[in-house]
Structure formats: structure tokens, C-alpha cells
Amino acid sequence: MSDTSQPHSDSADAPAAERRRLRVAVIGAGPAGIYASDLLINNQDHDVQVDLFEKMPAPFGLIRYGVAPDHPRIKGIVKSLHRVLDKEGIRLIANVEIGKDITLDELQDYYDAVVISTGATKDRDFDLPGADAEGVHGAAEFVGFYDGNPLFERDWDLSAKNVAVIGVGNVGLDASRILAKSAEELHVTEIPDNVYEALKRNQAEKIHVFGRRGPAQTKFTPQELKELDHSENVHVIVDPEDIDYDEASETARANAKATDQVCQILEGYAMRDEDPSKRTLQIHLFESPVEVLTNDGKVVGLRTERTELDGTGQVRGTGTTTDWPVEAIYTAIGYRSDVLPGLPFDDQLGVIPNDGGHVLANAGGEAITGVYVTGWIKRGPIGLIGNTKSDAKQTTDMLFADVAKLSTPEHSDPDAILALLESRDVTVTTWDGWYRLDEAERAAGEAEGRERKKFVEWDEMVDAATAQ
Ligand SMILES: Cc1cc2nc3c(=O)[nH]c(=O)nc-3n(C[C@H](O)[C@H](O)[C@H](O)COP(=O)(O)OP(=O)(O)OC[C@H]3O[C@@H](n4cnc5c(N)ncnc54)[C@H](O)[C@@H]3O)c2cc1C
């Protein structure tokens, strides 16, 4: 990292004419990076220019490559982020991976400060016995496939009739809903052709979703849990034996409306009988996965141990196990962030060590001046898109408080960074390029009476974004 330059002499107290422009690189154009960019350029005290770097040819992070295709309402958040990226003062430099196309050290020669918002794309490790068997998939892999992320598989084996999904959060719901819905239901969304073709071959008859604890301890949000049942082809059930509360659960219900709503919805599902005319999605509670059962290296079942509440909202094992015959298992036990070369990484928490915004040299160590972090890479892969906004505020406030300490970068010409990337044969895609790609995807969808059809090949995206 460069420290050859002089500290800033300007501060919020200096007259505007004397203040020089602060140039900030934000790395990762997901919601956290976009909200941070907005806060940076909109502040009253400093003149800020943001370059927003993104490794994919398109912006929006997990809104494009995480949020399920049958959640267009959520994808609508893109509209407000669009308005941010339309603003002068933010320049999108996409199709550029920090750590590969340009190092963080090099970047610091061009900017007064760097904000890292690289999010998360991978699955957390799943280490049950048998977990490496054929047929065990991480939900993030499946999400990457059905959301048309060019870095993930183009085809998916959906021949399993009985499927287990491990994890009782919204990602588990997304994966099970996509497995349960018909290909035709999903064809109206933006899914690419390869995903539609794979879904047409989906043999799933019963999807079992497993959670270790009880109704009050699930991580579902009420709207997503309710919506699971909105498909004509899907029948959601819960075994009445799986509805149980201890004192801590009752307190959790009384203290949080959302928890209570989730419990009520689960209780509603527990009143139903099976409906053999539809794909069944059964949510099992108090079942802790203990082993993947295999034959010849392939999944043939999942063994779970029955648990019971211990009065504090935690559970203990009862020693009673059940073997569920399933041919595929999806683990939705959480996402994990990638290491960013040149910076420390807290393996335990899966984040860049930080004190609420400043990047630290190591967990509990000194702050690295001029380097900040926001979003999932800052606090771990939990929370909704909206949560990244307050997060970004905390981080950008820290950056502004440090202005007097920031070093002046070696290169002041805003085009110098583009020249460097060009000299390395890196094809940059821009915000104007997103408009072109967006239009091309919409045109491809309209031809089939759909709002959009996503492009899945990297080159196809870059070609559309850079078309003259
Ligand atoms: C499957 C799934 C479904 C979800 N559904 C919902 C939902 O319905 N509603 C909701 O509110 N929230 C949902 N979320 C949560 C939401 O997606 C996150 O809260 C939010 O995306 C986190 O924002 P972020 O900007 O921190 O990370 P991300 O969205 O991951 O953005 C990080 C960006 O950084 C880029 N990047 C990474 N490394 C580099 C690098 N080295 N150089 C340059 N760029 C880089 C990535 O390509 C990405 O664009 C869902 C999450 C998942 C995983």
C-alpha cells in the first residue's frame, strides 16, 4: 500500500474552493457498495468522486445473482439503485476484478480511500460424514445456476424424486421453492434458456426441509414463508409433532412480531393433510442432520437425530434417529465471503476484520487508514438488502471522520486508472454499458412475451454492454 504521499490538509472546515476532490474506490457494485457510493457523493462537507469497481460485467451483486427469479418485487429494488448509479459523481468500472486485474496496493496509488463491499458468493462448509457424496449440493451453487451467474454450472441434475434441503432460512426456502415449482411457472421470469431446459427435467416429488430447532427458532421471514404456498403446484405441510415451544420460544414470540407470524404460518401448515396431486414441500423441525447416507459414492438418504427444546430456546439430542430416503441434498446453511488478496481475513467469522467500518490489520489489531469495509464482507452473510444501507452509513461516517489523515494518491488524473486497465487489455464495462445490456436482455425476453431473459455467457454480456 502506498504511503508516499502527503496527508490531506483539507477538512470540512476549509472553504469549498480550497478543498480538493476526494477520490474513493468502492469495490463491489452490490447493494452495499451502491448505498455507500450514494452516501459518499451526497455528503454536504466534502467533494467526492466515486469509482465503483465490479468484477462481473453487470452491477447489482446478489440482487442479480442471489434473489430468486420469482421474486420480481425484490428485484424492483434495482430501480432505486438505478437512480443512484445515474448520478454524476459515480463512475461504474465493471468487468474488473480487484486482486486479479489490479491489486489493492496499486489501487491505493489512484485513490484517497478504498471501501470494500465484495459480499459473498460461496457456501459455508458442510462437514457431516458423507457430505462429499455425489448428489450433495451447496445452495449457493444451485442459486448461481438458476440465477444465470456465468461463473456457475450451465446444467443441473434434477433427476432426484426425493430431495432434502438443510437449513430453515430464506435461502433454504428459495432453493426448495425453485425445486418445487414447475418449469412453466418459472418460465415467465427472467431465467435463461439453459435453466428452463433443466427445470423441465425436474423429477422432484417430495422436498423435505430440515431444521435443528423449533418454529420460533427458524430464520424464515413471514412473507417468504407464506409465499411458499402461493403456487398451484406446491403443497406445504408440517407435522403437528414439530410444533413445540418452550419458555424462551414463547418470549421470542412475544418480543418479535415477525417470529410470532412465522410460528402462526407454520401452525397453519401443520393443520393440513398431504395432497398427492401436487409436489409436497414438508418442513421438518427438531430434526438435526447427522449423516449423509451413501451407496457407491452417491446420496441415498439423510440421517437425522430428533431434538427437543431445553427451556432456553436451544435443543438437545434425544438419541432417536430417522433415515430419510433422498437422492439429493441441498445445504442452505449460510454463505461465505471470498478472501480479497492483499487484506487480512477472519476465517472464523468469514469477514475482513474490522471495527464497524475500518479494516483492521488483524482481528483486534490496528486500523489501516484509508481502507474501509461495508455490507456482507463487513458483518457476515446475514440480513436483507435494506440492512446494507445503515451499514454503509456507519462506514462512510468513519471515512469522513478520517479525511484529515488520508494520504494524497500518486495519480490525480481520473482517467489514469482507465489507462492502466487498458494497458493490461482489461475490457471495462460501464454504466452506459449496463443500459445496453439491460435493453438487450429485455428485447430477448419480449420476443417470448416475457419482461426479460437473462444473458448467462460472460462474453455475451460484455458484447452487449460494449456494443456501439
Ligand atoms: C440466495 C439469496 C437470496 C436472497 N434474497 C433476498 C431477498 O429476497 N430480499 C432481500 O432483501 N435480500 C435477499 N438476500 C440478501 C441480499 O442479497 C444481501 O443482503 C445483499 O446482497 C448483500 O449486499 P452486499 O453488497 O454486501 O453483497 P453482494 O450483493 O454479494 O455484492 C458484492 C459485489 O461485489 C462484487 N465483487 C466481489 N469480489 C470482487 C472483487 N474482487 N472485485 C470487484 N468486485 C467484486 C460481486 O461480484 C458483487 O457484485 C438474498 C441473499 C441470497 C444469498
Automatic annotation (TrEMBL):
The record's top EC class is: oxidoreductase
Sites binding FAD sit at 32, 54, 62, 98, 376, 383-385
A Pfam cross-reference name: Pyr_redox_2
**Sequence intervals crossing the membrane:** none
* Chain coiled-coil ranges: none
Q: Could you say which residues bind NADP(+) here?
A: 212-213, 224, 383
Which Enzyme Commission number(s) are on file for it?
A: 1.18.1.2
Q: Which residues form the FAD/NAD(P)-binding domain?
A: 23-203
What this protein catalyses is: 2 reduced [2Fe-2S]-[ferredoxin] + NADP(+) + H(+) = 2 oxidized [2Fe-2S]-[ferredoxin] + NADPH
Question: What GO molecular function annotation could you give as one example from this UniProt entry?
Answer: ferredoxin-NADP+ reductase activity
Q: List cofactor names only.
A: FAD
List keywords of the entry alphabetically. Answer: FAD, Flavoprotein, NADP, Oxidoreductase
InterPro entries, per this entry? FAD/NAD-bd_sf, FAD/NAD-binding_dom, Ferredox_Rdtase, Ferredox_Rdtase_adrenod
Task: Family membership, please give it.
Answer: Belongs to the ferredoxin--NADP reductase type 1 family.
User: Which PANTHER family does its entry note?
Assistant: GLUTAMATE SYNTHASE 1 [NADH], CHLOROPLASTIC-LIKE (PTHR48467:SF1)
Name under which the protein is recorded? ferredoxin--NADP(+) reductase
